[in-house]
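Kindly go through the following sequence and its backbone structure tokens. Advise at your convenience whether the structure tokens fit the sequence:

___
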Amino acid sequence: MQHSVGAPLPPPEQHGWASGGPGGHHPVPPAAPPGHQPPPPPQPTASHQAPPGPPPAPGWVPGAVPPHAGPPHPHASRPGAAPPAGPPAGDSTGYVQLPPVPMPAAPPAEPGTGAATLAVLLIGPAGAGKTTVARHWARSRRVPTAHISLDDVREWVCSGFADPQSGWNEHSEAQYRLARRTCGFAARNFLANGISCILDDAVFPDRPVVGLGGWKRHVGPGLLPVVLLPGLEIVLERNAERSGNRRLSDEEVASIHGRMAGWYGSGLPIIDNSKYDVETTARVLDEVLARSIASPPTW
């Protein structure tokens, strides 16, 4: 069957067979033996010549795209033109080069400790609000900060717990010593992983070896101590709201508060939070720590 335009089309190939039109299927001819030269294709006769296309438009230059051919393909090669480039390296999507992402401007200086990684020791008598303020300060920071409470760690001991209210002895002394050492291990571990921490303990100024000096050995010389010392009447009021073994007698609270007064004149920053709520005390603590970072206290 001859088509009206051009040479006859070859039959479409299939797997092992070739379609021969309405007459059915015929096997694909075998490949020619090696060295066999196929005969040259017959030259089309005048009857097989394709009809000429429409004449070119006036003024058409040979080699130019005829006006009836439509616009060239965007990826069509031209004589002497470079091949289309592949996807550009770097940040790209397909062939579209993305603009560079602008770096955000540096945030304005903010008051307080900001994003600094630091270790804080909050000192104060029973009822000063050390644990509550330390927990609030740690939660209100915009960077990871851990709160480590000495009393919480000390109370991990269940069977055989030595309550100092029942009398200070070698067992209670050993449990406090182990608790401080455990808190120091935890603080150094947090700091090594870029997490700030705040510890709270009732450290007495008249026992520097087992108190402030011990914390400095456990945590490191970069520890920033701050004393939280409200008035005696506030401490007594807050202690009366406690329960369990954390509630002390008024005589014990007064004795501890009197010993804590020895921090005055020590060079450590002291916050009197008698008239502050928890949020205000935490904000003042952050400001005091910022000053301690700029000018560390000598202790």
User: Anything to note?
Assistant: Residues 170-192 form the longest helix (23 residues). Helices lie at 130-140, 150-154, 170-192, 212-219, 232-240, 250-260, 278-294.
